[in-house]
Amino acid sequence: MPIYEYKCKQCGKISDFLVSVKEIDNFSPRCRYCKSLEMTKLISNIWISKGPDVNQLTSKAESTLMNTFKGKIPEASRAELKEIAKEAAKRGKRRVEEMMDKK
After folding, report:
1. CB–CB of 54/93 below 8 Å?
2. In this model, does residue 98 exceed pLDDT 80?
3. Count of CB atoms within 10 A of residue 38's CB?
4. Quick check: 41 pLDDT over 70?
5. Which of these, 46, 51, 61, lies nearest to 98 by C-alpha position?
6. In the chain, where are the structural domains located?
7. Which of 20, 59, 75, 97 is most buried, judged by most C-beta within 10 A?
8. How far is 102 from 100, CA to CA, in rounded Å?
């Protein structure tokens, strides 16, 4: 859901509102500070997410695998487990990016 920013004509402060695209045409913003209805819509920066960070995914996958084996993994196998988690994270990240590109 987009965040819309408005500047109050009376007090000059900026308020932001989370408004669905369907509701924006009928939306009447009210200043959060002075309660005025005299607001000017601002042009805001946009932020596009390309999905989760690979390092976060790797950490989560590694943690899940360790929990699956209840931490009873020989030290020699832990390095392999980390590589498996890293590859799984990279594949997951690519899938998210592919899904985002299709929209």
Report:
1. yes
2. no
3. 14
4. yes
5. 51
6. 3-41, 54-102
7. 59
8. 5
Give the distance, in angstroms, between the CA of residue 78 and the centroid of all CA atoms in the same chain: 31
Place of tokens 């950490």: 59
pLDDT given at position 9: 97
Cα–Cα dist 10/59, whole Å: 49
Interatomic CA distance for residues 90 and 68, integer angstroms: 20
List CB contacts of 96: < 8 A, sequence separation 6 or more: 50, 51, 52
**Residue type at position 67:** N
Burial of 65 (0-12, 13-18, 19+ CB in 10 A): middle
Most distant CA atoms of the chain, gap in Å? 67
- CA–CA separation, 54 and 36 (whole Å): 45
Residue at token pair 């997951």: 92
Query: What's the distance, Cα to Cα, between the start and end of the chain in Å?
Result: 15
Give the Å distances, CA to CA, from 5 to 14, 21, 27: 7, 14, 12
